[in-house]
Amino acid sequence: MSLINQPLDLPFELCEFIFDYLQTRDLLACCLVSKSWLDFFNNSICHHKILLSIDETAAMCDLFNCTRKFVRIKLNKLKNERFLDILSHFAACVEELEIENCELKKECNMKFPSLKCLSISSTPAEIIHKIFNNPCNNLKCLVLYRLNGPTIKVVSNFLKTNDSLEEINFYLDEKNNIFNRDISNEVTFKLKSLFISYKSDYDLPTKTLTNIEKFLKSQGDTLETISLINSANLRLLFRTWNDLKAVNRLYFFSSDPVLDFCPLNVTELNKNSKITELELHALGPLSLNLTHFIPFLNAAIALKSLGVWCLKKDLIEYVAKNFDNLRFISCASMDSDCLTFYNDLKSKIGINDKIQIHQYL
Prior knowledge:
There is one protein chain. By secondary structure, the protein is of the alpha/beta class. The chain has helices at 12-19, 24-31, 35-42, 44-47, 60-65, 80-90, 126-131, 152-161, 206-218, 234-241, 290-299, 313-322, 338-345, and strands at 51-54, 72-76, 96-100, 117-121, 141-145, 167-172, 193-198, 225-229, 249-254, 277-282, 305-311, 328-334, 356-359. It has a domain at 1-52. The chain has 13 helices and 13 strands. α12 (313-322) runs parallel beside α13 (338-345).
């Protein structure tokens, strides 16, 4: 608990919760009430929690007169000079920046010395090279979602110049697909977290899968968390598994009804003692069955958490007999008598009786 004066006679955390509901103009006005109110907003804890969301209705004078240095900024539906002026005002202090539905016609030479997280969505891709043409030396996280216009060249150039990146979230479609080309040899950073979502498996080109595979392998020494949403198939997981040296959480989701998979020898997958969370989800007529799971389960020897789309009795029995460290199974659906079946299994010798089963749909 901070010893700083609260603007209201309430606990610090509750004050934060209340002020987070305010619109931009009201939030800025609060900073001008008194020194104690300004101190509250400048407190190191509150400093990193309150998001300043700015749209076309925000008053420029209120923004520029406020002495509060907000570090979490969201710019929405801003265009050209207004967008550029507001962005320039916060460039020196912003640490988390969200840009959504914004436009800019001219290029600028701006630096963001403190920027750690950048998220751009529903915005022309050209904004990336118009604004971020200088390296962001402290940038750790990049999120790209539904960019407009050609993205491959501008995104690729951005990645080449920002070697401090540790986390990337790509939301792809046929128009915005950075993996239309092989970028594995173009980047110098080493990621810890990678999220790739494609709009549909049905439209996923083989070339894209191949380039995703190359990129995963190039980052395999450092990647700790991997999420592949409609952007992979089981064969790709087989081909990349042995290169993923640091991964501890692997999330796979496919809505492709035709799985590109045929059983391979279990010995082809190296034993991995770091993966503790494994989620394999698939929808469609050919949903995953035990034969699909076994190669990955047998390789993830330290597994503690397992996620599946449809939980069946044979899978419960297999993991209960073979995985003493497993503590949690999550699923969207399960056979009607799964829980009863597992409770009956617990009475037998050599069965893991500590597994919690959670159905989230």
